[in-house]
Amino acid sequence: MARNSAARALAAIALACSCLAAPARAADEIVLGNIASLSNPFSRTNVTNLLLGYNVYLEQINRQGGVHGRRVKIVNKDDGIVPEKMMELTEELAADPSVLALVGYLNTPGMQQLIKQGTLVKKKIALIAPVGSMNAQNFYPLRAGYDDEIEKLLEEAVSTQKKRVALVYFNQTFGPGLFKFAEQAAKRVGANVVATGGFETAPDKIEKSVAETVERVSKADPDAVVVMSSGPGVYAFTKKFRQTPSKYAQIYTMSTSDASSFVKVAGIENASGVVISQAVPYPEHNALAVVREYHKAMKEQAADQPLTFYGLEGFMGAKIAVEALRRAGPNPTRQKIIAALNTMKDYDVGGFIVSYSATERVGRKTVDLTIIGKNGVLYR
Questions:
Q1: What own/partner pairs with CB < 8 Å and gap ≥ 24 does 241-246 have?
Q2: DSSP class of residue 288?
Q3: Fold annotation for 5-144+285-365
């Protein structure tokens, strides 16, 4: 049935967030808890796609009879990308006995607080496929981390003879911490940093703050700019920066940016040529079995929705969680799921390997680079 674009967007959000109302749960239902913000404009698009990927895979499994005869669902809670709120909501999820594992968290500082306070270990619950690579007990990563992405971008800048590099970040979530890492990584790979700048993200401050950062960075005449921000911040910075005398500098950014949104917000003439690092496989790369599975499930359940990196990430995260539930047996508990995850050494998600044991939990370490073409299409 044909739908207009507004209806399609609403349908995607409805499918991705079908569990937000937290209805009464069936006794035979297994719940996966997720904390990721749909209300924050810097995460909304990515989280919508992430949850869509989870729901598409879980619906596929449920149509086949569930796991050991039990349906599996994901329940999302919105922390607004506020670390303290993530902590509070994690406590709520942990207090619910029907929540047997956590999945797909997005909020790096919040997860760092969980690690610092040992929350997951105390609650004896696993966090599967967080968005980011957290190296800690009870964390089971899927993707390479933001640090890996930035190092890859800096290496690319050096290898392509960029002599003057600027580092720009947003003053929220992962921005400040990643900026500190980038400064050290730049020294390590031999990148010559000639300017740095951070901008605010509050609605009443972002426009002025971005403009000030653009002016400061442009004056340094860089030939490459690495932008450490989620979507809207990158789009705003790029659009403004392309109006300066330094507009021809190569712009690099991270997987937190969506290419189609980049083109819509910044304009195709500004987005063209931007290099974006990717921590999960290209969603059109159907040589991988998991990508073919994702395509098939999307065609059956959400054919009017785009194939996205975050959608594929959610699909793979759900696949790992379901495999752990299967291995945990017909009467899974949180501790049985952790024990099951620890048997998943060199587990093949479908041409994509993760490896978990009691002593080592490793997601994919490879970072790929993509570029937005002159036609607005993202290329590998």
A1: 241/214, 241/217, 242/266, 242/269, 242/270, 244/214, 244/215, 244/218, 245/218, 245/221, 246/217, 246/218, 246/220, 246/221, 246/222
A2: S
A3: Rossmann fold (3.40.50)
Are 244 and 225 in contact by the 8 Å Cβ rule? The answer is no
Residue located via tokens 């340094």: 220
How far apart (Å, rounded) are the C-alpha atoms in residues 110 and 77? 13
Q: Are 338 and 138 in contact (CB under 8 A)?
A: yes
Q: Is the dihedral of CA 226, 231, 237, 239 positive or negative?
A: positive
| Phi, psi (deg, nearest 5) at residue 368 | -100, 160
The 10s digit of each residue's pLDDT in 86-142 is: 999 999 999 999 999 999 999 999 999 999 999 999 999 999 999 987 889 999 999
Tokens of 37: 């913000």
Helices (H), the chain: 5-16, 44-63, 83-94, 108-117, 119-123, 146-159, 175-189, 206-219, 231-241, 259-266, 268-271, 289-301, 309-328, 334-341
Q: What's the CATH architecture for 146-278? A: 3-Layer(aba) Sandwich (3.40)
Task: Spell out the residues 6+ positions from residue 301 whose beta carbon is closer than 8 angstroms to its own.
Answer: 15, 56, 59, 60
